[in-house]
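User: Hey, my collaborator sent me this sequence without any context and asked if I could get a structure. I don't really work with proteins. Can you help?
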Amino acid sequence: MAVKIVLADDHPVVRLGIRNLLESEAEFEVVGEVADALQVVSRVEALQPDVLVLDLIMPGLNGLEITRRLAQSAPHTRIIVLSMHANEAYVIEALRNGASGYVLKGSDASELVHAIHEVLAGRRYLSPPLSEQTIEVYAEKATGAPLDPYETLSAREREVLHLGAEGRTGPEIAQRLYISARTVETHRANLMRKLGLRSQTDLVRYALRRGILRLEE
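Assistant: No problem. I've predicted the 3D structure and written it out in structure-token form, which is a compact way to encode the shape of the chain:
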């Protein structure tokens, strides 16, 4: 039986390259592609793939938040995060949120194939120079850290945060999330209070620090 894979990345050329790579393996079948981050969770829930290959930074919602949600709604799908960032903070949050693998975009093409085999076998995979030992040391240091205010945000507040940081207006966010503009403003006020932010500039700076905005552009 073929291994069912879904690809989530907002760049068509990247998705095409990954699809061609994976479908050159006889046992892999790409059953879906998603360009819109806000649709990833529903598509995975509908398709129930064995593996989701997920870009870390996507407009609308980042891969860390998507991983968090799918760990609850699609626990049998193994998630491999693709990222340009080797920062331990990104890696540990991805793993804590439920990712099984973390592959750097600068890796050899064959590494993604290897990572899929590893996570399907029930093992965790990290691209070199990342290592389990490095991540464990970082995790120990982070254990005693105070609660991250981001953790206090609701799922909807996080969506409004991500879209607002991209510069979308209240009406635009309302249209994207199928809620009223007044509800958007309520969520925005709540998240700004919880995060201790006062302005759009503060919001953008926070999003950059969190890796919510696409740093490579």
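In plain terms: The chain is about 50% helix and 15% strand. You can pass these tokens on to your collaborator as they are.
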